[in-house]
Backbone:
């Protein structure tokens, strides 16, 4: 065999090997990203059910079936505040304190009494990335949102298209620490620190009032997403506008979300879907 032929064979073999390795690596990366995204769906489902618990124990209201069934209450505050109005800790940690744990409820998140929880970031607590203490999810707060504390809106008046929670890119916020989106300062680009996005997979997740969780692509126009972030905007926009950018979606069990209208009897009715499906 001629020397030139042998060289060409080696070059072609090397190119084939590089192509195979590149394909294998790309497949591994995509599979890993999709696995993380799939687990994120279940994280948001748990998040919704846990926030429902915060609503039910909100001490601003009498705990009566009339109030809960009529939706005559506002969403629970995002931060627990001290006597002087200083935020002590986030709703993410407030939910943890609903568990039967012997911890005080009136200290700042940096208190020594919370050190074990703060340093360990327990596995059952799904609001932080594996091996990290920074939260990947923010509530959509600020004026004219479900969490507007200066002008509270009862849950029975919240439009189903309103975004409650979403992925935050590089939050730089401990999961116990007060910190959420503000619609007035929401960045205009995807995947900038403190804005919408994710470093774990392409796109980002948003969670609507009606319990739907959508995985949107990085190509989703931010101006369009912002229309779903305020009560006024969500009342005037159709969610189908986001369909072209939706990768997958899931639906929480509506019967487990007390802020949604509940039918008088759900006996013998199938539970609403709570697994991810295509858009």
Residues:
């Amino acid at each position: 065999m001629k020397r030139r032929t042998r060289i060409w064979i080696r070059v072609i073999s090397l190119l084939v090997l590089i192509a195979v390795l590149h394909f294998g690596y790309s497949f591994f990366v995509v599979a890993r990203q999709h696995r993380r995204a799939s687990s994120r769906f279940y994280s948001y489902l748990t998040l919704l059910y846990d926030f429902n618990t915060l609503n039910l124990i909100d001490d601003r209201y009498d705990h009566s079936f009339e109030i809960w069934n009529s939706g005559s209450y506002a969403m629970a505050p995002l931060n627990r505040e001290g006597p002087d109005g200083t935020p002590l800790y986030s709703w993410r940690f407030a939910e943890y304190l609903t568990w039967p744990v012997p911890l005080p409820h009136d200290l700042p998140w940096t208190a020594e009494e919370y050190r074990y929880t703060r340093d360990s970031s327990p596995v059952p607590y799904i609001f932080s990335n594996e091996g990290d203490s920074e939260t990947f999810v923010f509530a959509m707060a600020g004026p004219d949102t479900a969490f507007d504390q200066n002008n509270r809106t009862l849950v029975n008046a919240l439009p189903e298209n309103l975004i409650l929670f979403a992925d935050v890119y590089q939050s730089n916020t401990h999961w116990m620490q007060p910190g959420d989106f503000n619609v007035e300062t929401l960045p205009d680009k995807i995947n900038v620190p403190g804005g919408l996005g994710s470093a774990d997979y392409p796109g980002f997740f948003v969670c609507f009032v009606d319990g739907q969780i959508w995985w949107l692509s990085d190509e989703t126009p931010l101006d369009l997403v912002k229309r779903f972030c305020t009560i006024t905007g969500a009342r005037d926009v159709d969610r189908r506008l986001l369909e072209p950018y939706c990768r997958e979606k899931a639906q929480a069990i509506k019967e487990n979300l007390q802020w949604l209208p509940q039918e008088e009897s759900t006996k013998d009715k199938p539970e609403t879907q709570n697994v991810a499906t295509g858009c």
Remarks:
- Helices lie at 3-56, 65-70, 91-96, 115-120, 222-226, 231-235.
- The radius of gyration is 22 Å.
- The chain has one domain: 36-278.
- The CA atoms of residues 158 and 231 lie 7 Å apart.
